[in-house]
Amino acid sequence: MTHPTGVSARRGPLRAGQRVQIKDAKGRLNTITLIPGGEFHSYQGVLRHDDLIGGPEGVVVTNSSGRDYQVLRPLLNDFVLSMPRGATVVYPKDAGAIVQQADVFPGATVVEAGVGSGALSMSLLRAVGDQGRLYSYERREEFAEIARANVESFFGADHPAWSIHVGDAQEKMLEVHEPHTVDRVVLDMLAPWECVDAVATVLAPGGVWLNYVATATQLSRVAEAIRASGKFTQIEANETLQRGWHLDGLAVRPDHRMVAHTGFLLTARRLASGEEALTMKKRLKVSGFSREDVEAWTPSDESRWTPQALGERPRSDKKARKNLKEARLTARRARAAEQGVDAFGRALPGEEA
Ligand SMILES: C[S@@+](CC[C@H](N)C(=O)[O-])C[C@H]1O[C@@H](n2cnc3c(N)ncnc32)[C@H](O)[C@@H]1O
């Protein structure tokens, strides 16, 4: 029986090419890729990779100066927060909520855009499984390349359910998909309202469209655009707040600090063609709400919706190129580990060629 993609990188003895997290007694965390003969140097001494390769995770190992390190494989949550990035990643708490609220199921056909660094792609691929299909669209070539390498590093191989395409989501969707053949659409991009027609065309009746946006103005604009199309129903929004807890003897309380804001989730269901949404008895209260109010809050002039105006930090091409190099190297090692060879194709000690 063959295992689902990526399983062997998540269990069993640690292998060369795999990533591990090592944590010292002060809680300092480093993520390293295991290389035969490799060493992790810190001002506290040297830890030999060979002392970890072939052994289990969950062990405590001692370095040349007698310092202890706890060794664990990074979970998906840890991986996405430590991997090289192009654009901002979807936080793990939101990725979990997205998979659940978009009702992404094994075997589903899912469209995703933009791909950014590929963090959400990994959660979606896990949810659709090897028998599903995830079509990911990204307009920036260098981000698509970083995402490709990150996804390959995480799964240790090409994922059979995945294809990534460079271009504008609204155009690509119409080019690639027959009408009403997609089960779920998940958008994490600056202007998802530009995709209303494309999503309405490709999404199957009853299909879920989920938007992840960073600001209330984007949330409002996309909600009104979806409502105005008349092709969707059950338009709902929420956000997920996650507050960590401090657990220390009798001092059990919420952490002092938390990530207070990441983004909003908005979901809508596709109506069957020609159907109108059921008129709800409880009407939205829209009195005293004029076109001018909407225009002031969410201007229709597209040139005003810039990343800077929405508070996004610009990403330099130089930084993207540096991160791409790192992502590709990690991916090469992870793929080699899956195949039992090193990054140059030579059999690893203890592996059959
Ligand atoms: C915040 S990032 C996505 C992060 C990603 N979900 C992750 O978890 O790593 C937004 C991405 O959308 C892309 N984008 C914006 N508008 C787009 C469009 N119309 N079509 C395709 N990609 C788009 C941007 O280039 C950017 O990479």
From TrEMBL:
List the Gene3D superfamilies.
3.10.330.20, Vaccinia Virus protein VP39 (3.40.50.150)
Identify the EC number(s): 2.1.1.219, 2.1.1.220
Give the InterPro entries listed for this entry: SAM-dependent_MTases_sf (IPR029063), TRM61_C (IPR049470), tRNA_MeTrfase_Gcd14 (IPR014816)
User: Biological process (GO) annotations?
Assistant: tRNA methylation
Keyword DNA-binding appears in the UniProt entry: no
Residue ranges, compositional bias (Basic and acidic residues): 312-329
- Family annotation (Pfam families): GCD14 (PF08704), TrmI-like_N (PF14801)
Q: Which organism is it from?
A: Micrococcus cohnii
Question: Boundaries of each tRNA (adenine(58)-N(1))-methyltransferase catalytic subunit TRM61 C-terminal domain copy?
Answer: 79-246
| Major enzyme class | transferase
The entry's cellular-component GO terms read:
tRNA (m1A) methyltransferase complex
Please identify the protein, giving its name as recorded.
tRNA (Adenine57-N1/adenine58-N1)-methyltransferase
> Disordered: where is this region?
296-353
Q: Name one GO molecular function term.
A: tRNA (adenine(58)-N1)-methyltransferase activity
Coiled coil ranges (UniProt) are none
Keywords assigned by UniProt, alphabetized: Methyltransferase, S-adenosyl-L-methionine, Transferase, tRNA processing
